[in-house]
Amino acid sequence: MRAIPTAARAYILCAVLCAAACTLPLLRPGAAVPWSSVLLLAGLYAVCEMPARSRYLGGSVPVGAGSFFPVLLAAAFLLPPAAAALVAVPGALVGRVDKRPAAVRRIWRAAQPALATWGAAQAYLLLDGARTLRAPDFPYALVPAAAGALAFCLVLTALDGGILATAERVPVRTAWRGLLLRSLAPHCVHGLAGLMMAVLWRSPYGPLSALFVLLPMYISCWIFAQYHRERAAHQATIRALVQAVDLKDKYTRGHSERVGRASVLIARELSMDERRLEVLRFAGILHDVGKLGVPTRVLRKDGPLTPEERRVIELHPEYGHEMVRGIGFLGEARAAILHHHERLDGSGYPYGLAGGQIPEFARVVAVADAFDAMTSTRSYRRARPVGEALEELRRCAGTQFDPQMVRALARALKRHGWETAVTADEAGAAPAPRETSRHNRCGWWRGGARAPGGGPG
């Protein structure tokens, strides 16, 4: 179980208190609350979240998340802000939570849309949206609805960035980057659908007619589920490849996953676009998949490699590239798999690329790979201390490694710390020294590859 940092818990508590404060007007004596509409909309949103638990519509993926925001926006257009905020709570509480601690995550998922719905309702009222809804006059009715959708989007993205910074420890300067732009168009569409629901709800046909607006949402929900099934299949394929490498090369067991995570840390320090991070993680995970084509006797040899064995093992980047050539979703990761042993001065392999000729992902993975190798204990040598390994990387920066990537790794270590690992199966493997940094809680760093002759790979 991954513990939620104290800062994130405090942030979630503040969000919950703010959401509770938004509903306080409902407790005033004589407050006119349309409870029947509140209960209908809250129940409808809760039912809409149920596909996440269905093996036919979602299975193990949260297909309902975000798909039925039109219900919340319709509530913002139909109800007073305090009442609208309540609509999101039951659906969030019954929604699927796969990660622990489930209770804290459930509470966060209730507070976040409640605040967003309250903000949307306030923006809608500010532009006199209630009057335009009583007598729909297009396109004038679109203006307050657009303001409500924009407020909904702004609140959600603001809260999302905050949780990334506090819970995931994403650098503050990049936590909010791109969130608003990616969310704006979908939320504008949700706002239009919510307005259609609200107009039909108030029409002579009544609330039942508003349900027809949700039909496209259910279709998109099904498509979303198919996408996640395909993504899960991709990840299962990658796990199978990595497990095959781990079984074959006992010296680097677990190394691939750790290099993937370390590569992502470096990329975040470089402010790479979030959409590239998963591909880079795949690059780190699969960088040594070509070892499946290397004879096991060479991989498991205890002594120094002969020149012929060295040439064989140096073919593993090309083997790996051939293995993943047809996997389209890997994108830039394929180039990283092929070139992660190139050196900045052109003395690397397989093609002797130099400087900017080496793909960016390959330069990131090279640093993560070498650092993880040096800080892992193997049956044939003890791990180096983190500081010593960093100094070695700095010494080789400009010749073997990209200095920018080395500096990014150093910053990431200062922020997150590093936990060394024992990766050999040998019972007598020496224990790995543990860094005493106060940040040494993330446990993201792994053992690295064994290079020809027994040095770091």
TrEMBL record:
<dbReference type="InterPro" id="IPR003607">
    <property type="entry name" value="HD/PDEase_dom"/>
</dbReference>
<feature type="transmembrane region" description="Helical">
    <location>
        <begin position="207"/>
        <end position="225"/>
    </location>
</feature>
<dbReference type="GO" id="GO:0016787">
    <property type="term" value="F:hydrolase activity"/>
</dbReference>
<feature type="domain" description="HD-GYP">
    <location>
        <begin position="230"/>
        <end position="425"/>
    </location>
</feature>
<keyword id="KW-0472">Membrane</keyword>
<feature type="region of interest" description="Disordered">
    <location>
        <begin position="425"/>
        <end position="457"/>
    </location>
</feature>
<dbReference type="InterPro" id="IPR052020">
    <property type="entry name" value="Cyclic_di-GMP/3'3'-cGAMP_PDE"/>
</dbReference>
<feature type="transmembrane region" description="Helical">
    <location>
        <begin position="68"/>
        <end position="95"/>
    </location>
</feature>
<dbReference type="InterPro" id="IPR006674">
    <property type="entry name" value="HD_domain"/>
</dbReference>
<feature type="domain" description="HD">
    <location>
        <begin position="252"/>
        <end position="374"/>
    </location>
</feature>
<feature type="transmembrane region" description="Helical">
    <location>
        <begin position="179"/>
        <end position="201"/>
    </location>
</feature>
<keyword id="KW-1133">Transmembrane helix</keyword>
<protein>
    <submittedName>
        <fullName>Metal-dependent phosphohydrolase</fullName>
    </submittedName>
</protein>
<keyword id="KW-0812">Transmembrane</keyword>
<dbReference type="Pfam" id="PF13487">
    <property type="entry name" value="HD_5"/>
</dbReference>
<keyword id="KW-0378">Hydrolase</keyword>
<dbReference type="InterPro" id="IPR037522">
    <property type="entry name" value="HD_GYP_dom"/>
</dbReference>
<feature type="transmembrane region" description="Helical">
    <location>
        <begin position="138"/>
        <end position="159"/>
    </location>
</feature>
